[in-house]
Amino acid sequence: MVSTILPYELSETLRLKKSQYCRFADTHDWDGFASLMLPSLTATFTDPDGTIATENGVRYEFNTRDEFVAFFRAAFETQQTVHIVGPGELTRLSEDEISAIWGVVYHAASHGVTGGWTGTGGGHYHEIWRLVEGKWMMASLRMVRGFWKVSQLEGAHKEVV
C-alpha cells in the first residue's frame, strides 16, 4: 500500500511548482506558466455552490492547457495581479498521482488611463498532479472561489508603489 503522506522533497517540489504557477501568472510569463501543465489539462473555476463561474458572458471552463493559457494571457493583458497560496494539503493517490488543495488569496487591478477597478478574492485550488517522464505536471485544476469583491476606481490611473 502506498502511504498518503508525501516525502518532504516531493512536497517541496509541488509547493515550488504552485508558487511558480502564481508568479508566472502575475508576471505574465505564459511560457513558464504553460510548462507546469499537461497539454490535456482541464480547468474550471466555480462559485461556492459548484456552478461554473461566468463573468461578462464567459464561462470559466477550459478543456486544454492551450485554451486555459490563451484565455489568461488575454485577460491579464490589462491587469496586474498577485496570488498568494498556502502550504497546501497534499495527498498521494498513487505512485504517479497527487491531489493538492491550496488556499489562495488574490488581488487584481485593471490599469487603464481613465480609472478602472481593484478586486480581492479567495478560495481553494483543487488539483491533480501527475508524474510524467520524471516530471510532476498539473493534470487538472478546479478553483472554487469563496469570494470576489471589486471596487471601481474613479478618475485618472494612479500608480501604487
UniProtKB/TrEMBL annotation:
It comes from the Eukaryota. Residues 18-142 form the SnoaL-like domain. InterPro entries: NTF2-like_dom_sf (IPR032710), SnoaL-like (IPR037401). Coiled coil: none annotated. It holds the Pfam family SnoaL_4. This is SnoaL-like domain-containing protein. It comes from Aspergillus keveii.
